[in-house]
Structure formats: C-alpha cells, structure tokens
Write a structure and sequence with these properties.
It is built from 13 helices and 24 strands. It is of the alpha/beta class and about 425 residues long.
Length: about 425
C-alpha cells in the first residue's frame, strides 16, 4: 500500500509556480530520432521519468551512447545504418510508446531482436502495429497469442513503402509506420480517421530525412501539467502557474474541456522550438459544471480523460465521456479503473463500453478512498488528487507507478502548499 507520506492533503488553497518534467512523448522521439542522426544531438528538457529512461537504455543496447546530465542529454547518433544487433532482450519497462515506435525502427534493421516489458506492458496488444509493419517487411518470429509481448522480430532492408489507412487514430501506430518508411522503397503515408499527436511529423520536419543532428528542446509535459492544474481546480481558492508547457494543438483537448467546464486557463509567454509550441499556463479555482466529451475532443484528451472524470466528480451536474474505448488498452483498463477509483471516494459513476458518466456534486461529502492503481500512473495521480479534498484515511496501492511519467509529482504539490496527510 501507499505510505502516509505518499498521500497529501490541502489544508488551504494551492498557490505558486511550478515546472513539470519534459513531455515524455516528445522525449521518446528526441532520443529515437537523435539515435538515427549522423552526429551528436543535444536534448534539453528531457524527463527523468522511467519511460524515457527505458528508451535511452534500449538504444544503448542498440549501440547508441546517451549521456545524461539532469534534464539534458547528448545523443551520439549512429545514422540510419549504424544500429547494431542487441546482445540481450530490449526491456521497454512500462512504456508502450517505446515498444510500439521501436518496432517501426527495428522493421528496417537487418537483425533479430526480442522486446520485453513489465507486467502491465505484457498485457498491451501490439497487433495494430505489427500488422502494417508486417506488410512493409517485418517478420514476427515469436509473440504471445500472436500479439502480446514478449516479441521476437526480424527486420529487413529495404522495406516496402506503404500507404496505410489506419482504422484508428493512434500516434504510436502512425509513428512506427513513418519511421519504418525511412528504410522503405517508395512512398510511405498514413491516413487516419482523426488527427492523432503529430510530434513525429514535427520532429522529422525539424531534423529532415534522413535526420540531421540539430538541437532539440522538450517542453514541459501537458499531461503532467494537467494534474497540477486539476489540483488547483479541486481545491477552492487555488491560483497556480505551470511554466514552459507544450501546447501542441493535438494535445490541448484537456484545456478545451476544462474551459468548457467553466475554468479559465491563461496562456502567457508563448514560444516555439523545433516546431513545438509552448507557453506558461495559469489557472484559478472556480466551480465547474458538467460537460459532454466525445468524438475528436475525446481523442485529443485521451490520456487526460481519467483526470477529466476526477474533476467531474466535483463539478455541478452530469459529465458524459464517450468515444474513449481506447482507454481500455492503456497501462490498465482506465475506464474500469477510473470508475472504481471514484466510487471508492463515494462518487456515483456509470461505466460504459466506451466511456463514463460521472454524477458530479461539489457539495457531496466524500469518503476516504481505497484504491489499487494496478500499476497505472494516471490512476494513482487521480486518486492522489481526490485525497487532497477527501477525509483522512485514503490508501493507494501501486502509487510507485507515478515515477514512470512524473517523478516530482508529490514534490510539485508540496511546493504549491499541499502537506502530508495525517497518519
């Protein structure tokens, strides 16, 4: 179980300024594309979360030297032809992004590799990536039930270019195919039913094809910043600013949703580096109202939807979240886990195949929660936010998973005024 030091409460409003770790999605791509450059790539703002560490470790096994110094890294790129066969399985840890995009790179390598991960990752299906990559030339030599890790694959060179009509909007699928296209003959293109995150396209535009060594800055992770903004929207009287946060339009669905709920998130000091926009985000507490979230908006806020449901618990009225079936195959079944988590605090929630209905009430008396996050960092953080405003006694199993994306989560909340809950 989580220790009392892991559970925070808010004795008063949260106030002040904070910085969050670098965007792990951009960090993954900075390390991967940096490895494929011919020369040294200087990366700033890189997260020290376990997911990005997994990517750096895997590329070390593939012959790429990555030197870390705090949030900076020097990636000694080996070019498109310089990766070498690993001597041991490539451990992707908890990072589905690492495994799925790495498969696209391995598709173009003339050697075999085995990919493994932790308990959570071994439950995440890979068929959606393996199928199109197989059409390009990747051979799957071994996979549990044909789709789950551990996976053993053999690449080929050259690959066959592919024009792929993706049945889902997925940045991981799209990125894997586009990166495989670096070793393919002919055109490689991905058409999506909706616009998924476009960090890979932006970075390829910055570095060129083949990629050339240029500096890369990783802005603060909007998904992490969202939890601090969410804390401010749960604790009355709060007023916080999160500095240097990425505001890529494919990622700002959460900001659009909370503004529809009645919040005001001000963007100041706008800037752009390596084609990625960023800004400081300021929010003040105000009472929220229930909303409808579906379609393209749900896609742009997919990772933050458990947090939206958490905020909806204290909004006035009903919040309906739909078109989010993809949440079922994340680090956990996030639809089921979010519903269980909120119910443990006394919040009525209806679970649907593709989403949730949350019956919000800012005046409802909460109960202490008892949650097993099942290794899912976002569920653990949502439970921590509810604990800020719930009576003492909450317990959270699996809170250590927060380190995969936001190791400084508790420190940031303490810096804004949260304190350890009484024992």
């Amino acid at each position: 179980m989580s220790t009392s030091a892991d559970i925070l409460t808010a004795p008063g409003p949260l106030t002040g300024r904070a910085r969050v770790p670098g965007d792990k999605s951009i960090g993954h791509r900075a390390l991967m594309l940096g490895a494929l450059c011919d020369g040294v790539v200087e990366v700033t703002g890189l997260s020290d979360g376990e997911d990005n560490l997994s990517t750096a470790r895997v590329f070390g096994q593939l012959g790429v030297r990555v030197e870390r110094d705090g949030d900076r890294a020097r990636v000694h790129g080996v070019g498109l032809d310089g990766l070498r066969a690993p001597a041991a399985p490539l451990d992707c840890g908890n990072s589905g992004t690492t495994m799925r995009i790495l498969l696209g790179i391995l598709a173009g390598q003339p050697f075999e590799a085995t990919l493994v991960g932790d308990h959570s990752l071994t439950r995440r299906p890979m068929r959606r990536v393996l199928e199109p990559l197989g059409r390009m030339g990747l051979t799957v030599l071994a996979a549990r039930d044909g789709t789950y890790p551990p996976l053993t694959v053999r690449g080929a060179r050259p690959l066959q270019g592919l024009v792929y009509a993706s049945p889902i909007a997925s940045a991981q699928v799209k990125s894997a195919i586009l990166l495989a296209g670096l070793w393919a003959d002919g055109e490689t293109r991905v058409d999506e039913p909706g616009l998924s995150r476009d960090h890979t396209e932006r970075m390829l535009a910055w570095l060129g094809t083949p990629p050339a060594a240029r500096p890369i800055h990783v802005p603060g992770d909007l998904s992490s910043a969202a939890f601090l903004l969410g804390a401010a929207l749960l604790v009355p009287g709060s007023d916080v600013v999160i500095e240097d946060v990425g505001v890529n339009p494919t990622r700002t669905g959460f900001l659009d949703i909370v503004e529809a709920m009645g919040a005001s998130v001000e963007r100041t000091a706008p800037r752009e580096k390596n084609h990625e926009p960023a800004a400081d985000l300021a929010v003040r507490w105000r009472e929220l109202r229930g909303v409808e979230v579906a379609g393209e908006l749900a896609l742009r806020a997919l990772d933050e939807l458990p947090l939206v449901a958490t905020l909806a618990a204290r909004a006035r009225g009903v919040t309906r979240i739909r078109d989010a079936r993809e949440l079922r195959v994340k680090e956990s079944d996030r639809i089921a886990q979010t519903a269980r988590m909120l119910r443990s605090f006394g919040v009525p929630v209806d679970e649907h195949e593709d989403g949730l209905t949350v019956h919000g009430d800012p005046d409802r008396a909460l109960t202490p929660g008892d949650i097993d996050a099942d290794g899912d960092h976002r569920i653990a953080m949502c439970a921590n936010l509810m604990a800020l405003i719930a009576p003492a006694g909450t317990s959270i199993a699996g809170a250590a998973s927060i380190a995969t994306s936001f190791p400084s989560f508790h420190a940031c909340l303490r810096g804004l005024g949260a304190v350890d809950a009484p024992r």
